[in-house]
């Protein structure tokens, strides 16, 4: 089966360009690279809590507010007592194809679905195309960490019967961008009932809501987190002229409650979308997918992804 997203209207952004745009908004030397967070402790300071953050190189930082954006296996999330993400039953390859002379394709997303697999690509600009491939594998059964082997396995084995246009995209891959790994997610009820914030500590992005990529909302929702959290903390900052530790408890609490149900629904919707599209073409599954999922549920999920998280008023 082949799907096109012409009517949904997705917008693709090169990750490198997005990260640069965000980093450029920060004061010089705000970002520390190659820093591994090893431990977090809480201290009382003038009647409020502050976080003491320990890094692998021995550096210690005291913070009035700690926002864990440290990925799926978040140390900050673990410190809050959040349950670990679980394996979704699928693994995925992601890569960037480069066409120095231009690929000549339109900007539409193209997807290919079938039993136990899903593939697709989306042009980022005139010369670069992001592509992906997911399939059902036992955890730990990923073919290799070698980019050459990954590309060969996709072309010669897993995707060999997909259209030539897809295989050509894979052949043009920049090997440095290829990765193959398990798809992970956090159970939605762990987000709904879990401890997403404590005192002056909270999480955002994959540290809060790791989800499968089937709705393409992981990065989008992380940006929503940033706006919502920035609005609550920023309001306090503007009113006081500085970050007041004792007010961070209230700001983080409001952020957590605003985000909890939305991200839980997107986690569930992403998982359901992937499962229905890769679960085969038997009579029952065909009915569930074509009649129930695409007839009713998918429209709700698309509407859920079209979300306005508001603006920063300062």
From TrEMBL:
<comment type="similarity">
    <text>Belongs to the 3-hydroxybenzoate 6-hydroxylase family.</text>
</comment>
<dbReference type="InterPro" id="IPR036188">
    <property type="entry name" value="FAD/NAD-bd_sf"/>
</dbReference>
<feature type="domain" description="FAD-binding">
    <location>
        <begin position="19"/>
        <end position="234"/>
    </location>
</feature>
<dbReference type="GO" id="GO:0071949">
    <property type="term" value="F:FAD binding"/>
</dbReference>
<dbReference type="GO" id="GO:0004497">
    <property type="term" value="F:monooxygenase activity"/>
</dbReference>
<dbReference type="InterPro" id="IPR044560">
    <property type="entry name" value="MOase"/>
</dbReference>
<dbReference type="InterPro" id="IPR002938">
    <property type="entry name" value="FAD-bd"/>
</dbReference>
<keyword id="KW-0503">Monooxygenase</keyword>
<protein>
    <submittedName>
        <fullName>Zeaxanthin epoxidase</fullName>
    </submittedName>
</protein>
<dbReference type="Pfam" id="PF01494">
    <property type="entry name" value="FAD_binding_3"/>
</dbReference>
<keyword id="KW-0560">Oxidoreductase</keyword>
């Amino acid at each position: 089966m082949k799907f096109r997203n012409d009517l949904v209207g997705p917008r693709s952004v090169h990750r490198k360009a997005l990260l640069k745009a965000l980093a450029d908004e920060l004061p010089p030397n705000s970002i520390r690279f190659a820093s591994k967070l090893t431990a977090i402790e809480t201290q009382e300071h003038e009647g409020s809590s502050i976080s003491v953050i320990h890094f692998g190189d021995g550096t210690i930082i005291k913070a009035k507010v700690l926002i864990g954006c440290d990925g799926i296996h978040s140390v900050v999330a673990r410190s809050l007592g959040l349950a670990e993400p679980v394996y979704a039953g699928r693994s995925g390859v992601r890569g960037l194809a480069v066409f120095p002379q231009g690929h000549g394709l339109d900007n539409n997303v193209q997807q290919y679905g079938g039993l136990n697999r899903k593939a697709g690509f989306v042009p980022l600009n005139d010369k670069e195309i992001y592509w992906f491939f997911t399939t059902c594998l036992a955890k730990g059964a990923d073919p290799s960490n070698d980019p050459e082997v990954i590309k060969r396995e996709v072309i010669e084995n897993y995707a060999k019967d997909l259209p030539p246009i897809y295989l050509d995209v894979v052949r043009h891959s920049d090997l440095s961008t290829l990765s193959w790994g398990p798809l992970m997610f956090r159970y939605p009820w762990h987000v709904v009932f879990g401890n997403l914030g404590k005192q002056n500590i909270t999480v955002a992005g994959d540290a809060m809501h790791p989800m499968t990529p089937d709705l393409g909302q992981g990065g989008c929702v992380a940006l929503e987190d940033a706006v919502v959290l920035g609005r609550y903390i920023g309001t306090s900052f503007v009113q006081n002229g500085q970050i007041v530790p004792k007010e961070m408890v209230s700001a983080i609490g409001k952020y957590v409650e605003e985000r909890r149900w939305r991200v839980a629904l997107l986690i569930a919707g992403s998982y359901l979308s992937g499962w229905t599209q890769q679960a085969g073409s038997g009579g029952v599954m065909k009915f569930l997918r074509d009649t129930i999922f695409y007839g009713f549920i998918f429209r709700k999920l698309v509407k859920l992804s079209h979300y306005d998280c508001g603006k920063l008023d300062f």
